[in-house]
Amino acid sequence: MKIYLKKKIIATLVLGIVLFIGSFLLILSIANKNKNYAVEETIDDILNTNDEHMNMFNNDENINVDFDRTNPINNKEDANIDNENVNYSNEIQYDEEAEERESELYLCNENLKMLKDKLNSTMRENTKKENLMENFAYKYLSTDIVFNNFVDIRNRAELHTMLWRKIYGDGPYTSATPDINDVILNPGSLTGDKKLLAILHKKLYPWLYEKFKSPSSLLRSFKGKGIVICTGSYHFRFARSTVDTLRNVIKTKLPIEIMYVGLSDLSEEHRKELESYENVFCTDVTQFFDNDIIFISGFAVKPFAALASRFEEVILIDADATYIHDPAEWFEDEEYKKTGALFFKDRTLYPGPHGGSEWIHEWMVEPSEYAKNSRFYNELSAHEIESSTVVINKSKRLLGMLLTCKFNEQKIRDRVVYQKVFGDKETYWMAFDMAKEPYSVIPHPIIYIGEINYGEDIEDKNQKQLCGHIGHTDRNGRIMFWNDHIIKDKHEPKYSNQLLRFEGWFYEDLENVEWTDTFHCANIKDDFPINEFTQEEKDIIKSILDRELEKKFVLNAGTSY
Ligand SMILES: *[C@@H]1O[C@H](CO)[C@@H](O)[C@H](O)[C@H]1NC(C)=O
Ligand SMILES: *[C@@H]1O[C@H](CO)[C@@H](O)[C@H](O)[C@H]1NC(C)=O
Ligand SMILES: *[C@@H]1O[C@H](CO)[C@@H](O)[C@H](O)[C@H]1NC(C)=O
């Protein structure tokens, strides 16, 4: 506490000196109107002029400067007074500092916002005040990210995008993008905007440069287009069936990369089985990034798998997503070509304020057009996007891809994100929005597909229902895929050995369709129109079902089909 105060006094003194020198230089520069310093040079001037003062509150001379807020923040974490349910009044000895830190963080965010606005404005005035602020920014950005402060994360992410685009352009980025490695390889020699970016980049993505030593080695590591499927031995039977359908029924030409989480996740036998298909590769996703920070598990494997994958353009699909047309068609989608990212809507469920909407309202400022009009943001649904398929062009949308992964880092996901939303599924659009990266969403609602029943699993035996799966059409309204495979209900033991009957489908319709409690069936009115499949669709579905009946990838016993 004493040292803390002492540091504060020194910092204030330094600020005073800097301000004094600042005003002196300002007068000089006004006197010398013609000499128009570039902003970056002036920042460096300030840094050099005040180097010895800087060092007074740096414990470390390199880029990881230890601003006097760093330790208290870490203490805050260690003392475990960071989660929402904490009763601060029980932590009396921390109270005062906690409040102080809160207000400091608030000030930091305000300053950062000003800095961001300044960098974004074309009128970049060269005043000392701004230089000081930039100077302050170096210090501030060097501090650790507090995992649950999404206002702070958002400010940093926006600034990161802004600086990245200013220095490296709007993309697409390649290993040949000039100076792309500077932020990682030569941080010590950087100045001005590049130095800011280097600090930010490293703080936001401390796990990124493990296998890849630089941005260009990451960008060099992927090329072409392909499908990525995450599976361990647990979902192996679905993955094999899906790979088989894609290769032998849909006959896609796309290569397929299977991503698993360490050798114990997917057995060697299962890997061999999958790799026996043409152009299928199995990859251990834990070999790429610092897994002590991200600790890949569960849903979080998906965005990291997309990032690590050997493909530049990735169609990330669930192991049990059943496609009836070639997924490669997503690459032809007009909006995907424009934006470099394509997502799909989830069901409309649970209207009204929800934890997730309250949370994003705290940090999502200036949302994109999509986000601003989304059901989630407007509290019309607690679900917005579902991630059984996600399409991303990584060289175009590198920044969105990286930030999506950040949302799925262990601490951030476990303590914040997955508490607010279900798994990884909402993190793509939220992170793209935060990174100010464009994305597109197929505008149609989700479809419901399956068999027509009466009163299944409910009391009213006359109630007409459609029982089955949710899926998606393309932009032209043509069915592309559905989730949860071709068995009737993988979650329900009595149905998990039966194939679903594919008798019809319809788009989500809130007026006329009502889910049953289990979401296995939807109740519909007798005259509610159910779309029939085209002959082509019927033929493809029959081929997929016949193959399952022959090979028994998933059905391990008899079937009612
Ligand atoms: C927090 O702790 C104080 C004192 O121990 C107690 O009076 C108060 O009710 C607690 N608040 C909550 C929300 O638990
Ligand atoms: C940058 O400025 C432009 C024009 O003033 C504005 O439309 C845009 O939203 C700003 N971007 C950010 C990230 O603040
Ligand atoms: C993905 O991005 C790369 C780099 O811009 C580009 O060459 C490629 O055409 C893009 N793919 C699509 C389908 O837009």
UniProtKB/TrEMBL annotation:
<feature type="transmembrane region" description="Helical">
    <location>
        <begin position="9"/>
        <end position="31"/>
    </location>
</feature>
<keyword id="KW-0808">Transferase</keyword>
<keyword id="KW-0328">Glycosyltransferase</keyword>
<dbReference type="GO" id="GO:0005794">
    <property type="term" value="C:Golgi apparatus"/>
</dbReference>
<keyword id="KW-0735">Signal-anchor</keyword>
<keyword id="KW-1133">Transmembrane helix</keyword>
<dbReference type="InterPro" id="IPR029044">
    <property type="entry name" value="Nucleotide-diphossugar_trans"/>
</dbReference>
<keyword id="KW-0472">Membrane</keyword>
<keyword id="KW-0812">Transmembrane</keyword>
<comment type="similarity">
    <text>Belongs to the MNN1/MNT family.</text>
</comment>
<keyword id="KW-0325">Glycoprotein</keyword>
<dbReference type="InterPro" id="IPR022751">
    <property type="entry name" value="Alpha_mannosyltransferase"/>
</dbReference>
<dbReference type="GO" id="GO:0006493">
    <property type="term" value="P:protein O-linked glycosylation"/>
</dbReference>
<protein>
    <recommendedName>
        <fullName>Nucleotide-diphospho-sugar transferase</fullName>
    </recommendedName>
</protein>
<dbReference type="GO" id="GO:0000033">
    <property type="term" value="F:alpha-1,3-mannosyltransferase activity"/>
</dbReference>
<dbReference type="GO" id="GO:0016020">
    <property type="term" value="C:membrane"/>
</dbReference>
<dbReference type="Pfam" id="PF11051">
    <property type="entry name" value="Mannosyl_trans3"/>
</dbReference>
